[in-house]
Amino acid sequence: MREIDVSEVTKAVRDLCISANIYLGDDLKQSLKSARESEESPLGREILDVIIDNYRIAEEKQMPTCQDTGVAVVFLEIGQDVHLVGGDLDEAVNEGVRQGYKEGYLRKSMVSDPVFDRKNTGDNTPAVVHTRIVPGENIRVLVAPKGGGSENMSEIRMLTAAHGIEGIKNFVIERVREAGANPCPPIVVGVGIGGCFEKAALLAKESLMRPLGQPSEDPRFAAVEKELVEKCNDLGIGPAGFGGRTTVLAVHIKTFPCHIASMPVAVNIQCHACRHGEKKI
To answer: What is the pLDDT of residues 114-166, one digit of tens each?
Structure first.
């Protein structure tokens, strides 16, 4: 049994909140550069140049890549041989968010009541925390700031087996078409299939953590991912919605077994920044 003080979780969350909002992953940078080279629209290429320049300036100036520094979505994979000490885990996560958003000069976007008062909490807490117990004696902390513009374009539908794979593809393409310029394309599309209502949504968000463009391990779904990228780019929405071939950088599908009567499908759309970072404790 390994003892870990929750203060280590606080520090990891704090650091990741800052770094994930400033630094884009090398996989995403390469994807944007490749998209710029293949983009047919002159205006589209110009916008991609601005996006690429923006992440360079963010790193140089140590500033967020976007003013919407998002909801702090935190995934914790906790080894079953870990004994947490020193306080409450959820509060440790929220303290990390509190410190990170203050010290990193990140915009605070959380409101305490979702409907009536909508008063800003002032420190971007509470975080949205997903915890999973896994074998081992380590903790994997993953922070994924999620902006409102892309999250608002996400959707879940309770399809049935009768809809089949064509029904799933039609839903994804329809969602991207209706999202248009709102989620700041080029976008990354996470698709969760199976489980139940809430599991499908979680699968879709988790799929966005996969290295960009890395195909599904299931060759059938890898083929669907490739087809959806092509068909979504055929929509012509383009960078920032001004037209062009680069609407979608990648489609990631994650699946889970489901009930015989249903086939839940969730589409979680991510902006071109696709921010996330992780640390092992």
So the answer is: 999 999 999 999 999 999 999 999 999 999 999 999 999 999 999 999 999 99
Q: What is the pTM of this model?
A: 0.95
Cα–Cα distance, 211 to 24 (Å, whole number) = 12
Amino acid at 37: E
Tokens of 252: 């990631």
DSSP 3-state of 71: strand
Q: Which residues contact 214 (CB under 8 A, 6 or more apart)?
A: 27, 252
Q: Which residues of 56-91 are buried (b: 16+ CB within 10 A; e: fewer)?
A: eebeeeebbbbebbbbbbbbbbbbeebebeeeebbe
Percentage helix, strand, coil for the chain under 3-state DSSP, each rounded to 5: 40, 25, 35
Among residues 229, 219, 123, the alpha carbon closest in space to that of 172 is found at: 229
Residue type at position 202: L
Structure tokens at 11: 């520090």
Listed by start position, the domains of the chain span 2-20+65-146, 149-275
Cα gap 211→149, rounded to integer Å: 22
Q: Name residue, tokens 């990170």.
A: 100
What six digits make up the tokens of 15? 């650091």
How far does Cα 146 stand from its chain's mean position?
6
Sheet holding 128-134, edge to edge: 128-134, 71-79, 139-146, 277-280
DSSP assignment of 120-171:
B-SS-PSPEEEEEEESSS-EEEEEEEE-HHHHTT-EEEEE-GGGHHHHHHHH
Beta strand spans in the chain (E): 2-5, 71-79, 82-85, 128-134, 139-146, 155-159, 187-195, 248-258, 263-270, 277-280
Q: CB within 8 A of 72, min separation 6: which ones? A: 13, 17, 97, 100, 101, 124, 125, 127, 128, 143, 145
Q: What is the pLDDT of residues 220-233, one digit of tens each?
A: 999 999 999 999 99
